[in-house]
Design brief:
about 180 residues
Length: about 180
């Protein structure tokens, strides 16, 4: 009986050499720190604003995170407003879209904890506040797209729609939503 017990214990250890079942660390997606890159590009992540209605900033399902629309704020936290092509130049609209990119990444960090987990920016919907004669929506939303590529490289390239809106909430210059794939 003693030999049988010893054999059982030996088999138990042979089959399960790691009883805690520690996870094997996943390979890093980047050879740099994403948040350090954001700072090196002259941007600063902030605490995301809380929704003022019955919705959330992000919904995670599986490895995808669906981000609610965000708009641009200046350094003091004030909304950047006006119609591009009337109140704002295309360059000012581009800058507003860049600020919206940082607002989205701030909200994404609050949701997932670490931007180094971003596998890919999958899809972007960019809405530009403009009148019905304005046709340079892509040039404005390029501010968002260019920022994502500057931060994430090829992983920042995404499918995209850039459309005009007769108005946006609070007269925002633009509003942008995105879908992001993350590493578990």
């Amino acid at each position: 009986m003693k030999q049988l017990t010893s054999l059982f214990i030996l088999l138990l250890f042979a089959c399960n050499t790691n009883p805690k079942q520690e996870e094997v660390p996943k390979a890093a997606l980047y050879d740099y720190d994403v948040e350090e890159r954001i700072e090196a590009l002259g941007h600063k992540l902030s605490t995301p604003t809380k929704p003022v209605a019955n919705y959330v900033n992000a919904v995670k399902t599986g490895n995808l995170v669906f981000m609610a629309g965000k708009g641009p704020r200046d350094a003091e936290g004030n909304l950047i407003t006006g119609k591009v092509g009337i109140d704002l130049t295309i360059e000012e609209g581009y800058a507003a879209a860049t600020k919206t990119a940082i607002a989205q990444l701030s909200a994404l960090k609050a949701e997932i904890g670490d931007l180094n987990k971003v596998v890919r920016i999958v899809k972007v919907l960019g809405m530009v506040n403009c009148d019905d004669n304005f046709t340079q929506h892509p040039e404005v939303i390029n501010g968002f797209s260019d920022t994502m590529v500057a931060i994430f490289g090829e992983r920042g390239k995404h499918a995209r729609a850039a459309v005009g809106m007769g108005s946006l909430p609070r007269d925002l210059a633009c509003e942008i939503e995105m879908i992001v794939e993350i590493q578990d």
